[in-house]
Design a protein that fits this description.
3 domains, Tetratricopeptide repeat protein, about 350 residues, Serine Threonine Protein Phosphatase 5, Tetratricopeptide repeat, 17 helices, TPR-like_helical_dom_sf, globular, mainly alpha
Length: about 350
Amino acid sequence: MYGKAFAPEYQGGLSAELGVNSSYEDVLAAASRALAEAATAVDAARAALAVAEATRRLGRAEAARAAWRRSYRSARTAGDEGAMAWALWSGGTLARQCGTLALARRLLTWSVALAARSGDRLAHGYSLAGLAETGRIQGDYAAVAELHEQLLEQGRAHGEARHMVWAMSGIAQMHRNSGAYAKALELFEESARIATEADDARGRAWSLRGVADVLSLRGEADRALALLAEAEVICRGMDLAGALAYNHKMRGNIFYRAGWYEAARVTYGVALEEFDAMHEKRGAALARLGLTKARAQLGRSRWETLAELAELEAEFIRIGLKGARETVVAFRAELDSAQPAPGAAAA
């Protein structure tokens, strides 16, 4: 069993004022007021954490970086290791969002250690979850699959729907990436159901994106696009800039798979602008890959395409995105196979 979703990153007086479905502009306004009025270092750490999370979700990376560091400094001044762990969790999550995955791992590992020492179970769980997600994004499934399962069991044991949704979505994504589409769809749909029942709009938006992805892989483009449209309404209502950009990138994927290459080109371009605006390098690189593939299908020269693929492969290696690099290699092979053999007669 599980209860309604809640947001443990909103602490102190903010916990009564804000909830998991609060828009991030509202969160930022409330947290900024609390930070200005903070009477103690602990109060400042809590308020700055909420500022960091709001600005991160709104795609304002520099403001988020300054806020999580302020939260950490305040928590350290207070000698509160639990608050220090939360600040480092926020910093690690921002680092992952910005494509600096090695830094994300360092900050989240440090957060895990501090949370364990402090006895803050939620900070410990969220930090472990962050490490698991970082490993999953890098394609290191062997290292993090068991951790995802453990986190799911913890969520069930404590009735924490939001954590269950996160872990289940991560497990579903690994099944999807491994080609087990039926199992992935089952888990994404269960994740969406739990998020709906727990009133976790953000979790529902991300889960619907996963469902849409798998439906598209099965050739059900129209159903997939309808689910993304529903998720987009949630993203806009909550000011979820990052989730909206990933929604648009997925829409581009669906157009591409359906052979609607011009629509894919336009949509990938929109997603790329959104990722660039929030300095999210991982999302930007993935959107650029989609854009490169769509342009190639629309007649862009092979040599221009190969040059951009080389740039993207180097970026994916730098970030540590194994799956994305494999996609580059596969598309390059597809281009090579489409070339006429040397000496072949012209058609």
